[in-house]
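Subject: design request, 566 residues
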């Protein structure tokens, strides 16, 4: 990849920190972004801090990495956050919106990036510390003003005593005392106003909001609601948008940051919650700004059917919510427990109120026979549906194939749901309905044998927009695998195929119809020749087709379907 000239020059400029005093004062605002990108790319935290503290634009977006771009180093992210706080008192900084959405990545990655939990804790600490610093500065200013008022009072007392000899305790003395009292009240009133509006940036922001308030009123907004929001946001200088990772260890800090009013306001786009109680999740949702949240991901939390029914009304308060993911949240209703059917109806009604939802992921919730109840209440069809480990029944698949969602699905995950001959007609009908829009399909661990796969291949080949296909951990022979690859090379849109190891590659002793768990745990044959023979046959099929843009892999652990270009 050839870098543009401006990026090469920016790299050289930020590489030498000793020269920064020479160029920081004269660099034009158009070069701040390439300089900041170069500082992030080359791990120059000092340059990051100096640029952000003087940021000349109202918006700074540091998240959302491009494909192939490495995440920022942890030190650079910390330097950015510290510089934002310092910029609150720097007249050269005009920053109003800091967008860090998509910045976090997995902990311990290449280059020491900052993970989601660490970034969440750092952001919340920054918000709380900025509030404390503003209060200390306000207190110091108030103390100085109080001392000045006391000095004025003492001076007035001296003047009063000096003039007291020539004035009687009558009209003249009363006028003097009254004038001193009025001047004191005016001074204290100015002090209160100055304490509420501190700093040039905050005054400018409040004046701008006052000018735009009549326009908002004419647009039909509620006066009472607008005044309440104005009062809350009167101290806000910078809005910080980020994706939050909340668990039991970070919950208290997140609650303190979201409940804090100060120069920094934390806004959340996507929130991931792990191992929190239903009450804590409800409290978190109450604190999040309403018109910013796009997605909620709840994992490893013991919700139960009743708990989820209580949370859904809170989720319906977010008008932009488009993604809901529930992973291992213990909604198992196979046991005969009183009240669960009523709670399931409440869940169905609650899901129906999520009018903007386009992505629904239900992992390992064990809800056999309830798919119609869950999906029939949505006012709009879903585009992404992930149902792994859901114990789907043939009736569930039959409903899904005829539902309004089938013709709108772009991503479908039915992994670890056992598919047999009774479910095959529904699956084929589902693929036919989704053939025009489906781009990602996962049928890993579904027990697909050679016979089932052959019957399904015509329906798969009709999915003309399919880009990613996952079929790992299915008991296919080498002959069945070759049939799969021959079909894949005839699909021009397909870019990635995750195929299962053929049964011939495993060590002897594997059961005739192994489960996905057995295929995952059973050792592969240690003979290298066996694996090489399989790879050679697959490569030969791909080479004969002339396809160079199709990636084949059996590496389940390192496979990433999101790498497919949309």
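Subject: RE: design request

Done. Sequence follows.
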């Amino acid at each position: 990849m050839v870098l543009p000239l401006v990026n090469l020059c920016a790299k050289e400029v930020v590489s030498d920190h000793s020269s920064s005093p020479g160029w920081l004062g004269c660099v034009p605002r158009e070069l701040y972004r390439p300089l900041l990108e170069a500082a992030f790319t080359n791990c120059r935290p000092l340059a990051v801090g100096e640029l952000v503290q003087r940021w000349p634009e109202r918006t700074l977006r540091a998240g959302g990495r491009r494909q192939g771009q490495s995440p920022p180093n942890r030190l650079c992210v910390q330097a950015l956050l510290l510089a934002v706080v310092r910029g609150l008192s720097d007249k050269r900084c005009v920053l109003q919106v800091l967008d860090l959405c998509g910045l976090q990545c997995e902990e311990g990655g290449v280059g020491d990036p900052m993970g989601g939990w660490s970034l969440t804790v750092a952001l919340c600490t920054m918000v709380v510390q900025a509030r404390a610093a503003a209060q200390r500065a306000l207190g110091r200013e108030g103390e100085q003003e109080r001392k000045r008022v006391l000095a004025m009072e003492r001076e007035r007392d001296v003047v009063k005593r000096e003039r007291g000899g020539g004035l009687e305790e009558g009209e003249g003395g009363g006028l003097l005392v009254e004038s001193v009292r009025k001047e004191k009240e005016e001074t204290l009133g100015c002090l209160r106003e100055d304490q509420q509006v501190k700093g040039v940036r905050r005054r400018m922001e409040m004046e701008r909001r006052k000018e735009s308030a009549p326009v908002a009123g004419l647009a039909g907004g509620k006066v009472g609601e607008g005044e309440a929001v104005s009062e809350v946001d009167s101290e806000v200088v910078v809005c910080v948008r980020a994706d939050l990772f909340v668990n039991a260890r970070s919950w208290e800090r997140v609650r303190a940051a979201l409940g804090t009013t100060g120069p920094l306001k934390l806004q959340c786009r996507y929130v991931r919650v792990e191992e929190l109680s239903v009450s804590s999740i409800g409290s978190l949702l109450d604190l999040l700004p309403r018109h910013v949240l796009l997605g909620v991901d709840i994992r490893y939390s013991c919700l139960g059917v009743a708990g989820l029914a209580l949370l859904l009304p809170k989720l319906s308060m977010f008008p932009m919510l488009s993604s809901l993911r529930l992973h291992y949240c213990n909604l198992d209703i196979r046991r005969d427990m009183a009240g669960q059917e009523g709670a399931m109806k409440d869940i169905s009604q609650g899901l129906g109120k999520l009018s903007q939802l386009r992505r629904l992921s239900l992992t390992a919730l064990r809800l056999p026979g309830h798919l119609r109840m869950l999906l029939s209440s949505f006012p709009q069809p879903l585009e992404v549906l992930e149902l792994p480990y859901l114990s789907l029944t043939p009736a569930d698949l039959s409903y899904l194939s005829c539902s309004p969602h089938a013709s709108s699905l772009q991503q479908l995950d039915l992994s670890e749901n056992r598919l047999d001959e009774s479910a095959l007609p529904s699956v084929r009908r589902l693929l036919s309905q989704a053939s025009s829009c489906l781009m990602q399909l996962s049928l890993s661990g579904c027990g697909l044998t050679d016979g089932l796969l052959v019957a399904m291949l015509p329906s798969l080949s009709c999915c003309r927009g399919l880009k990613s296909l996952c079929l790992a951990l299915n008991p296919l022979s080498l002959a069945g695998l070759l049939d799969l690859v021959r079909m894949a090379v005839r699909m021009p849109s397909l870019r990635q195929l995750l195929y299962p190891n053929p049964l011939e590659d495993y060590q002897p002793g594997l059961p005739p119809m192994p489960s996905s768990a057995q295929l995952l745990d059973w050792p592969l044959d240690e003979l290298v020749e066996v694996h090489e023979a399989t790879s050679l046959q697959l490569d030969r099929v791909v080479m004969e087709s002339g396809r160079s843009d199709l990636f084949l892999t059996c590496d389940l652990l390192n496979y990433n379907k999101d790498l497919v270009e949309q």
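The longest helix spans residues 116-164.
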